[in-house]
Structure formats: C-alpha cells, structure tokens
Amino acid sequence: MAGATDLLVHWPIRPEAQDKTYLDLSAISELRPFRWTDVSLHIGALTTYWDILRDPQTRAEFPLLHEAARQVGAIQIQSRGTWAGNIANGSPAADGVPVLLAYDASVVLTSMAGSREIPLREYYTGYRNSVRRSDELITSIILPRRRYDFSVFHKVGARRAQAITKVGIAVTREAGARAANPWRVVASSVAATVRRCPAIEAFLASGALVRVPSDFFASIDADIRPIDDIRSTASYRRTVLARLLYHSLRGVSATVV
Amino acid sequence: MLRIEGLSKLCGAERYLDDEPLEGPLKGCLWGMTVRSPVSRGRIRDIVYGAGFNWSEFVVVTPDDIPGPNETYLIENDQPVLAPGYVRHMHEPVALIAHADRDLLRRALASIRVQVDPEPPVLDFRVPPRPEQIQRGTDNVIKQLRICKGDVEKVFATAPIIVEGEYETGAQEHVYIENNAMAAWIEDGPAGDVVVVRGSMQCPYYVLNAVKHALKRDETRVRIMQSPTGGGFGGKEDYPSTIALHAALLALKAQKPVKIVYDRSEDMAATTKRHPSLVRHKTAVDRNGRLLAQKIEVILDGGAYVTLSPVVLSRGIIHAAGPYSCDHVLIEGRAMLTNSVPYGAFRGFGAPQTIFAVERHMDRIAQKLGISPLEVRRVNLLKDGQTTSTQQTICGGTDRHALLERALGETDYARLLAQAEEFNREHPYLRRGVGIATVLHGAGFTGNGEVYLNSKVDVAGLPDGRLEVLAASTEMGQGTNTVFTRLAADAADYATDDVLVGMPDTFRVPNSGPTVASRTVMVVGKLIERAISDLAAQLGGGGSPLRGKALKDAIIAWHRVNGGGSLKARATYTPPPNVKFDDKKYIGDAYATFAWGVCVAHVEVDLRTAAVRVLHFTSLQDIGKVINPTLARGQVQGGTVQAIGWALSEELKFKDGGMANNSLTNYIIPTSDDVPPIRVLFHENPYEHGGGGAKGVGELPMDGPAPAILNAVAHATGCDPLAIPLTPERLMPLLEATP
Ligand SMILES: Cc1cc2nc3c(=O)[nH]c(=O)nc-3n(C[C@H](O)[C@H](O)[C@H](O)COP(=O)(O)OP(=O)(O)OC[C@H]3O[C@@H](n4cnc5c(N)ncnc54)[C@H](O)[C@@H]3O)c2cc1C
C-alpha cells in the first residue's frame, strides 16, 4: 500500500478486500525521493504526482510527466497517488503508465532474493497481470535521459477532472538517430493494458502520407482492439484515437498533412 | 443576510444523520439494510439466507411484519413497502435485516440470495409492450392527459409549412450530497407507544401519511422529524417514505432504535430518477415563423409504480408548448409503466423534458425557414393578454420580449455570433457556437393542487418576545430557513436574530405542504407574513397591528399574564382571486403565476473528441422580487450546473434494467472545472400574492440550459442533435455524418 488511492476507493463495500493483509510502505523514507544520474531519472516507489509537479527539472526534461500528473484525478489524488502504485494497479486506463512508456521507462523489482530491472513495455502480461512476483515490490522506475524533439500526451475523459481515461495517447519522437524508428506511440484504454503501438510507430516512420484521420485506421486496427464498456464505445475510441493522432501530428511529422 | 446555518455547516458542527453519534435516542442503535431484487420482474421463489451467519442474532423483517396495508401511501397506493412475493424492478426492496455490527451486516446481506422466477420485463418505454409484458390495464399506461385548444388538424390541412421533430431526454440521478438516511425508534406516549422517525427528507407530512397508513396508526402515535438534510432536488420527495417505513418496521420488530443509511452505490441504484422522455412535435408555421398549430405528443417512462408520474406528466404537458402564443394546440401525454426503478420528482418535474423539446424545435423551425432563432421567438413569445395552451390568460406585467432583448444586449449576442464564426474559419479542430432558449415555469402546485394542499403555517410569540415560525417546509441547502427568517423579520419589523425557524417535527409544526414545486417562498412565505399580521392584529386589540418593539413588548406582556400558555397565530392557504382550473378538461389557470427566463449558452466543440465545453452561460430570470440575492443566484447557478450535466454527461447506463454506473466515478456530473462562468441576471417584477413579492426560483434554472446548449452545438457544428445527454459518444457519429 502506497498512497492507497486505488486500494481504498471501494473499501467500505468490498469486504473481501478487507480480509487481505497489506504492507504499508509509506514510512519507508528511502522509497520516497526521486534522483538524477548522468543518464537517467530514478523515480522512487513512493514518489507522488505532486512531487513531480513541483520539480522544474522534470518539467524541462520530461514534460509529459507533468502533463499526465496534472490530469490525474484532482489535487487530492495527485498529492497521495504514486507512479509505482499506478503501474502496480495495472489499469488499462492509467495515466501515469502511458507517459512512462513513451519515455521508455523500466521498472526495478525487488525481493528478499535481490533486484531485477524490467522494461515497462515487457511488464504487463495481460489485463491487470504482470511479471511481478507476489514477493516483489516495485522499488523504483528508471527513465533514460534522452533528447526528444516532440512529445504529446492527451487524455480523453468524460469530464475535465476526476475522470477515468476513455482513450488516451502519449507520443514522443527522439531527436538524433539513436534508434531506427524515433517514434514511440502509446495508447491507453483501448486494450487490456496500456500499450505501445508498433504498427502506428512503423506507419509514421514509413513515409506514407496521412491526409485524413481515417488514414490511421489500418495501423490502429493492427495494434489495438477497443471494446464497448460502461465508459465508452469501441467505435468512439477508435475514431478519437485516429483524430487525436492526426491533429497532434499534423505539421509535426512531414507525412501528416 | 448570511445563511442561518452557514457557519455550522462550514465548520462541520451541523451533522447529517450518518455522522450523528449513537447517543440519546440512538443509543444501542442497530443498523438496517435492505435485501433487494436481483431481477427486473418476476415471482419470488425463495429468500436464501447464507450459511455461516447466526441469523438468530439478526432482526429480519418481511412483508408479514407490516401491521397495516403493504402500500406506500401516495397518489395511488400501488407501490408495496416490501415486495410481496413479486418484484417489478431491479433493486426493489424485498426484506430488511438489522444488526448492531455494520460490517457483519454488510457481509450477511451479501450472503442472501433472492431467488426469482423471471418474467419478461418492459425495459424500453418507447415501444409498445408485447402481450406478455402487460402489467397495468391493457396497455401499461399509467396516466394519459390531454390539452386541446382550437383545432390543429384543420390548420394542418391547409398549412403552408409543417415542421416535425422527435426529441429524447434521459434519466437523471439527483446526486444530493447526503445519501438517503433515516432512523427510527419507539417512545412512550400518552396514547401508547409512538414510532419516531427522524431523517433526511423534503416532505415530513408525506412521510407521516405513509407511516400512518402502513403501520395503521394515527398521527398521535407517529412522529416525523427532519434531520439536517444535504440536498434533495426532488429525490427526497417521495422516496423517504419508503426508507422511513423500513426503519420503522425494523425498530418495531427489534424494539430498539434502527438507523438505515444508504451508501452511494445503493442510493444511486435503488432510488428515484428523473423521468426519461420522448416528445414529438408537429408544427404548422407561416413564412415568418408564426406558430399556427402545435401538436405535441409527450411520453414519459414512469418506471415500475405510479408514484408521482401522473403529476410529473401533468406539469410536463402544460409546459410543452413553451412560452409562446398559438391558437391551435393539441398536447397528448402518457406515462408508461416499465420495469425500471420508479421515476420520481426531480427539479423541474417534467417541464425540463418538454421545454428541451420545444426549444430545440423552435431552432429547427427557424433553420427550416432560414430565419434566425431570435426571430422565431420574437414572433411568437407570449404577450400579456394572450393565452397559453390551457387558455390561461397571461398577465402580470412582465414583458417577455423586453427580457429577450435585454439578454441579447447583456451578452452582446450579435458580437458573440460574429466572433464564433470568425473563430471557426481559423481553427483546425475547435468549433464555437451560441444558442438561446426562452422558458417559463409555473410556480407552485399545478391547477387546484394548492387548494387541495390547504397549507398551514403557525407563528408563535415566545416568552422572550421572539417569534418562531412553525412550518413543515424543509431546509435542505436551498436556504428556506434564511429566507423565512428574512420574510418574518420584515413582516414583524424585527431584527433577524429575533426570529427562529423551528426544525420540522410533526408533533410541533402544522402541514405547510411539501418542499417542492418552487412553492416554498412564494406560497409558504406568504402564509408566514399573514400569520404574523394576524398575531400582530390579535395583540393590537383592534387597533393598528403592532410591529417591531411594540409587538415584542406585547408578546412578553401576554406571556406575563398567561404564564406557561402558548401564543400562536395560524394562516391557511387561500388562492389568489380569479384563479380557476378545470382539472378534467385541462382548461384555465394551470398556475397562479409563471416565472420567465432567457438563457444564452456559448459553447466550444472539440472535433477531435466530440467533447462539448460550455464556455460561458448567461441566465436572465424573472422570479418576482428577489428576497436574498446570494441564495437566488446560488439557485440559478446550481440549477444551471445540474442542467449542464443532464445535457452533456449525466447518462444512466442500464444492465438488465438496473443502473450499471451507480458510482460517482462512472455517473458523470460536472466538476468545478467543467462549469463555465455563469452570469445571473434578475428581472424583478414583484408578484403581489407571493411571500415578499417572490415567485418560484427553485426549478426555472433547470429548464433552459439543455436546449440552449444543444442549440449552440448545432450552431457550432452544423449538425442536428435531438437527444440528451449529448455525450461525445452520441455526438461523434453526428459529426462524422456532417460534411
Ligand atoms: C478520485 C480518484 C481519481 C483518480 N484519478 C486517476 C486518474 O485520473 N488517472 C489515473 O491513472 N489514476 C487515477 N486514480 C487511481 C490512483 O490514484 C492512481 O492509480 C495512483 O497512481 C495509485 O497510486 P497509490 O500510491 O495511491 O496506489 P495504492 O492504492 O497504494 O496501490 C495501488 C496498487 O498497487 C500496489 N502497490 C502500490 N505500491 C506498490 C509497490 N511499490 N510495489 C508493488 N505494488 C504496489 C498496491 O498493492 C495496490 O494493488 C484515481 C483514484 C481516485 C480515488
């Protein structure tokens, strides 16, 4: 239990949750801070959204962390909720996870047996399932320091605050030719997990011209399979994803016109 | 004047029932919970109480424990207190359990299985029922009403232009800040034991009548008290009778105090909602947009029991033609029985639904004729001396045309339009638009309702010379106590500190009627003024009525002479002169007076997401004299916010006939960040028969925003939305289909 904003939300009406045993991490001060090295940013397991919002350096280097943090719940949740809790909770609608993925983060898992570092894109194995063993804690999140010449985060909720994401994107383009494909595209609330979208990334790198939002449909359909649920519809999610990508990238990518 | 209980609310000293310590009469209190139906319709085969609980420790109430008729007393007594072997909607109360340990009770409740042999439910009120779905009469019609003025068919036969439209509105949950809550206990009284019920409610005498009826007791052996109430909006008009009876039945069986407090998910799933509606318009107009004939069909989803649907339908159809003059009007309304939670009272009481339809329709008439939405209203707005659909002659001196022009001037409407059009030419994906609605709202009960209510107010002179207002009208956040204090102080020429307003308690206060229908300040406020002038006249001994210090001294002197006596004056409702309504034919003065309003909405649509954001909203209202500007503005702003939610985001999602999104996470009311600046303007035209010159303000603000916003969306995007809530999921396909 970190900020407990996920754990306690249904507490009174879920007796079964009350029958479990929890470990309260909040007093382990070593897990709280985030720190910089020459090559990376380490976000401690108890780092909150508010910790990041207060920090000008992360705003400069990782602006999407700010964008996402500002749009999580509202100020009460931002000041208690943690990035690690957001990952561990595993919701496909999470807002912290997409920007971490867009920055190619990895997760440090620690148990009595030692620590291991797992790329976040390999962390989830299915709906609310991950490679984390039950004896492991997330102890930190590591973001490599790289240069980006474009980044965008867009959360579509049913209202402007206190909203669960119906569909969301986080997109970055790395500056310099470190990788073959500089694009990282992440979509949320359109699959069983928040996920990278390799087909859309490849489409953007392919040089194919995009003239209308629907030109994205083929690659969107290769990456994700949204559903109808209590919050939205599959067709809305697909359409909005295409429209968001189109309007966000228009003029940014030479191929989106 | 500051709100009377404002400070105690701000610092948390005022407590809702849930927060009250279990002391005094609640000492040793049990918690009560409700066993509910898992299906929409069917015969109960069995109730299986789960293993692993010592059920002899629990108090269990079934229909057999009800001393009187198993009926919830209201218009028709068709709603059982506990379903007697047959359920008609999901979450219908079937049995009650109580225990001192709330957690254990919750687990025990979860273990109970209500086994039902399901029967085919009606889940869509818009389609005619199949034979196996008939549950009332031959057609499931709860109530049918008709207004007829002139001869519409004759006009249609030769009309140059006919415009038709079909409009839909969805259910709406009240989301009062305090969930329903009720406590009951047994006290000794002179004539035997007394069942005392205390809780969150709008209408103490409705609760009294219901408890008397099902418990077979008279009013000396049932006592109803209101506890500080966190909002109602109509949601605590009739439902508290049900939960009060549940608490009372458990307390009687346990012979201990019992408290029932719903949690949010239960309150949302199981209690009343705004009636969904389908309204069809067929209108004959001339080339200038003048209304020649209006034919309107109003269909409401009434839910599983009659409850208040007949009167909601009545108010709905009376408002359906809008604030316009037309010589030929035919309005036919019906409320349909379905297997949903019974739909009930909600701010506006049927009028917002029909006004949404007529105000969208007026814009579509303008569109079809190629004239502006302003023009079609200028041509048709009622003038004093003209008549409404029920042939009520409008008078009172408010110039609705001037109201419209003032709203246009104050909002700089022409410039807003021009700016929006320029903005839309430039922006890649945002579209702005402006929309308007002109509305009316009948104040007080419909037709002869106020006469039947026969409301009474007492004002008592206390030994120290202060005055106490004794009325059953409830404070639930809207400011009743503050306004009553002001009216009484003004009538008596007292300082406001020298006026008390008693907490409603049926052992102490007379029946001043329910706190609904925008009637409290206008009707009950007037009774307070009259009771005070009676008291002042009584004490003045034939001379001129006493006021101020003279009145106070006379009250003190009276008590010196009549030590221990009670000094009271009572006023009973009398209708204003010349108000007549034929409730068979629906002809005449449907309301003693109307309040009027003009709304202007300025919106922005994001073409990427189809999200509609209201940028700015202006509401101009004629509510008679404004008694307390802060509270009145609060009513208009709050009503506007509630209407924005209804128009854009508040959507009930159903699964097998039950509310599936019964949480604040998934039922989307606006947050402060979704609410635009709301500019409130008043036109003060005092109404001589209203308390302090006031007409009603509670409901009018709910009427205009939804059509104004949709009209603005239509202007912004060129699409033609006809149904609310206009969620992005609903708007996106319309945008995709709009070139
Ligand atoms: C009103 C409200 C609004 C919200 N709005 C948003 C929103 O807009 N966007 C969004 O993404 N989320 C939102 N949330 C969800 C929640 O706030 C976030 O997911 C938050 O980041 C969770 O962090 P926490 O520290 O509170 O987690 P907790 O509730 O403490 O834990 C969540 C889960 O993670 C596990 N866990 C926590 N820390 C660790 C760890 N170090 N190692 C292993 N497991 C761990 C817990 O056991 C639990 O299963 C909202 C919640 C509420 C109540």
Describe this structure in words.
- The complex is a heterodimer of chains A (257) and B (739).
- Chain A is built from ten helices and eleven strands.
- Chain A is α+β, with helices and mostly antiparallel strands and 257 residues long.
- Chain A has two domains: 31-144, 2-Layer Sandwich (Uridine Diphospho-n-acetylenolpyruvylglucosamine Reductase, domain 3); 148-249, CO dehydrogenase flavoprotein, C-terminal domain (Enolase-like, domain 1, 2-Layer Sandwich), CATH 3.30.390.50.
- In chain A, strands 1-2-7-3-4 form a five-stranded antiparallel sheet, with helices on one face. Chain A has a four-stranded antiparallel sheet with strand order 8-9-10-11, sandwiched between helices.
- In chain A, β5 (124-126) and β6 (129-130) form a beta hairpin.
- In chain A, α8 (198-205) runs antiparallel to α9.
- Chain B is of the alpha+beta class and 739 residues long.
- In chain B, the strands form seven sheets. Chain B has a seven-stranded mixed sheet with strand order 3-5-1-12-9-10-11.
- The interface between A and B is medium-sized, with 26 and 32 residues.
- Bound molecules: flavin-adenine dinucleotide (FAD).
- Flavin-adenine dinucleotide (FAD) binds next to α5, α6 and β7 of chain A.
